Fold Oxidoreductase.
Amino acid sequence: MTKKVLILGAHGQIARLAEKEFLAKTDFNLKLYLRNSSRIRTEDATREEIIDGDAANVDQLEKALQGVDAVYANLAGNNIKEQASAVVKAMDSVGVKRLVWISTLGIYDEVPGKFGEWNNTTLGNYLTRYRSAADVIEDSDLDYTVVRPAWLTNKDEIDFEVTQKEEPFKGTEVSRKSIAHVVVELIQNNTELKRSIGVNKPGTDGDKPAWY
Ligand SMILES: NC(=O)c1ccc[n+]([C@@H]2O[C@H](COP(=O)([O-])OP(=O)(O)OC[C@H]3O[C@@H](n4cnc5c(N)ncnc54)[C@H](OP(=O)(O)O)[C@@H]3O)[C@@H](O)[C@H]2O)c1
């Protein structure tokens, strides 16, 4: 049966790229969940539905989760932990298990060397907030994958490698298009369950991202 995927934060930059890849490379149907939903149009009205909602609102999430097989959360913001808690609560109550959650590099202090120090200093409290949100996801019973991208670029390329939670992070950058591709594959193939993966472009080691 055709899978239905709920995309939370569907106006986000990676989410827009993932939407395109889902439509082009799979036969999945999509529910696009976002605030101020008049900002977007469906690309394929036969396969997509737009839902106005806030990711911190459990009631709205529960309604949106009806008939859904997997959730891809592309969220941000100072209340990211509250959003994580709401997503877990709503998924538990509706009985949806699969979640791909976009986080960031550095939440476990896993980025080595000078780049790790620079990343900690530059990202500061953002890292603490994203770690507490990832903790909520990892403490759940869901079939989650936490994705930790390197510093994001808008390069038109798919070029990436993956590190696991217990390994040092590699590289400094990765394209949003690569992350979108990883998300589609994670949901298509149901891989990396109950794992937190780092994703970077190979050969981009350095003390800072190249543009800094
Ligand atoms: N920039 C980097 O180098 C970097 C590196 C690693 C990880 N990341 C993280 O990766 C994630 C995805 O990146 P991106 O470029 O796709 O980010 P983005 O374009 O900022 O997308 C994040 C989306 O989250 C949505 N959102 C925030 N709070 C929400 C809420 N309460 N309810 C519903 N939607 C909400 C925002 O919606 P609105 O439009 O309604 O505000 C926005 O569309 C972000 O969390 C980012 O911090 C970034």
